[in-house]
Specification:
alpha/beta; 9 strands; 11 helices; Rossmann fold; single chain; 7-stranded mixed sheet; elongated
């Protein structure tokens, strides 16, 4: 978000409606912050718009407004973000889940065979792994991340949204991409929403992105560094006919298809997001490529 005009000074006694109207934020954002500060739902705030706001609540609200004017994402201010119909804990250690990534979750839910082994690389908040596990408890889920802080958030989300018994069925591994996996690991489906923004992209220094972890956003000079690593390594860990599905930037579809084709993937396809941008590319590994060529992996 761009920095907005500062709030209009308000008299000592102001109503909910007055504070919302003059805080300098869009109405929906302002109401979300007031709901966060007050613990009251949106409906209550609308019904009590003319009521005067007590000083302590006003201070909490104005502090949140100031942070939002500085560009801090509302998801971080609230500590939660809705994703795939559920509220996930988020914070500065993890990327804020985007609606586009829900399509990746739906893909796994639809495509994974019963009892399949599924890997989510770079899980962050656990949004993909936990959402898939919630919808498909028959699947064997593994999730990795290089950040111990991110894995801690993901584990808490699993406990909250799945319950202790089902959360314990997700195997969590800390490490950088493929190095996180134990020897002999094999999967039927591998998915990832990796960093894919170019290091010099000016958007990284603007708006909400300034507050998100840089390592979860940027990947080399062209944004393809981590995607290259994922495509190159996937054949070693996919069973014959296994599926690889990767989220990427709106203009990277052709490049990712090229990487997959060179690595031996077939049945390539690219899915478009709600804005009709190429967003997820998938393919299947041929039976004679990958694990059969790796010593010790049958």
């Amino acid at each position: 978000m761009h920095r907005r005009d500062p709030p209009v000074p308000m008299p000592a006694s102001s109503s909910f409606d007055q504070l919302l109207a003059r805080c300098g934020l869009p109405r929906l954002e302002a109401r979300a912050l007031m709901s966060l500060a007050s613990g009251r739902p949106r409906e209550w705030l609308i019904a009590h718009g003319p009521d005067l706001v007590e000083p302590a609540l006003r201070e909490r609200f104005e502090a949140l407004v100031l942070r939002r004017h500085e560009g801090e994402p509302i998801a971080y201010l609230a500590g939660v973000r809705e994703f795939h119909g559920h509220r996930f804990e988020v914070g500065p250690a993890v990327l804020i889940p985007r609606p586009e990534t829900e399509q990746l979750v739906d893909l796994v839910i639809d495509q994974a065979s019963p009892g399949a082994w599924v890997l989510d690389l770079g899980t962050g908040s656990g949004a993909i792994a936990v959402s898939v596990a919630r919808a498909r408890p028959d699947l064997h889920m593994t999730a990795t991340d290089r950040s111990p802080e991110s894995l801690a958030v993901a584990r808490r989300n699993a406990q909250t949204l799945l319950g202790e018994a089902q959360a314990s069925r997700i195997a969590w591994h800390e490490g950088d991409w493929w190095s996180a996996l134990p020897a002999g690991a094999a999967f039927d489906v591998i998915v990832s929403n990796p960093p894919y923004i170019a290091q010099a992209d000016p958007h990284l220094t603007q708006g909400d992105l300034r507050f998100e972890p840089h390592g979860a956003l940027a990947a080399g000079a062209d944004g393809l560094a981590d995607l290259r690593t994922l495509v190159a390594g996937a054949p070693q860990y996919l069973r014959p006919g296994g599926l690889l599905a990767l989220e990427h930037g709106w203009d990277q579809g052709a490049a990712v298809r090229g990487l997959m084709r060179a690595a031996g993937f077939v049945a390539l396809a690219t899915l478009r997001d709600a804005q009709q941008h190429e967003r997820i590319t998938l393919g299947r590994i041929q039976a004679n490529v990958g694990r059969s060529a790796v010593p010790g992996l049958e």
